[in-house]
Amino acid sequence: MGRRLPIRLLTWDVKDTLLRLRHPVGEEYAAKARARGLEVEAAALGQAFRQAYRTQSHSFPNYGLSQGLTSRRWWLDVVLQTFYLAGVRDAQAVAPIADQLYEDFSKPCTWQVLEGAEATLRGCRKRGLRLAVVSNFDRRLEDILMGLGLREHFDFVLTSEAAGWPKPDPRIFHEALRLAQVEPAGAAHIGDSYLCDYKGAQGVGMHSFLVFGPEPLDSAIKCSVPQERLLPSLSHLLPALDRLEGSALEL
Which residues form a coiled coil (predicted)? Predict the structure, then answer.
């Protein structure tokens, strides 16, 4: 068996891996509506958002870029549909709320860095690892990362909007590897989605780690991911990399 390549590059998912929203989507939407005189329950908006997001993602994947949409228009339509499903049928009344929400979700203050994220990124760089972002996010991500003080850790930020393909499409991972000029076996991806992150990266020959929070993992996923590739928190990453490098030395 040939010697396993040492890890040189770590690619990162962002949402719910490094960052999360400060407040649930339903609460954000309800607050903006209330400021404009519309009273809608946050729980109803949260449920409607999940439905609208799923439908929009299915009908217009990757922000509908190949179908003539912009990511901004895509998101405005999600907001309009969310309020419609929550019982607000006046699109004219919702339009300025949608504009405000798009701007607010562009601001770093709407997001928070997850515990351990910055320390882990610093620790990875201290080891000489190169870091990059591979995210199904839109063009707003660079400014959000900059505003939160995280952009400096990454060689590049590759969004699905810029790449033209969303995870788990292998092409976005291949593009990241091309930009970094690293072989798949010398790279690892970290994210919280089993399909988009763990399996997507694994599918192109990269190593992958699955981040999971306090919620119990689906039993089927838990059985299919080796224990050493599961990260209960980001603080577990560096020890996991040590184990991976140790196993490479034993080959």
Answer: none
Dump pLDDT digits (tens) for 118-167: 999 999 999 999 999 999 999 999 999 999 999 999 999 999 999 999 99
Rounded CA separation 138/50 (Å) = 18
63 touches 136 (CB < 8 A) = no
For residue 17, give the amino acid letter: T
User: Both 56 and 172 in a single domain?
Assistant: no
User: What secondary structure, in 3-state letters, does 173-230 show?
Assistant: HHHHHHHHCCCHHHEEEEECCHHHHHHHHHHCCCEEEEECCCCCCCHHHHHHCCHHHE
- Chosen domain end from 79, 110, 141: 110
168: preceding bond cis by omega (within 30 degrees)? yes
Full residue range of the structural domain in which residue 236 is found = 9-18+114-247
Which residues, 6 or more positions from 21, have their beta carbon under 8 angstroms from its beta carbon?
Answer: 28, 110, 111, 112
User: With the C-alpha atoms ordered 30, 36, 39, 45, is the resulting torsion angle positive or negative?
Assistant: negative
Q: Could you tell me if 146 and 180 lie in one domain?
A: yes
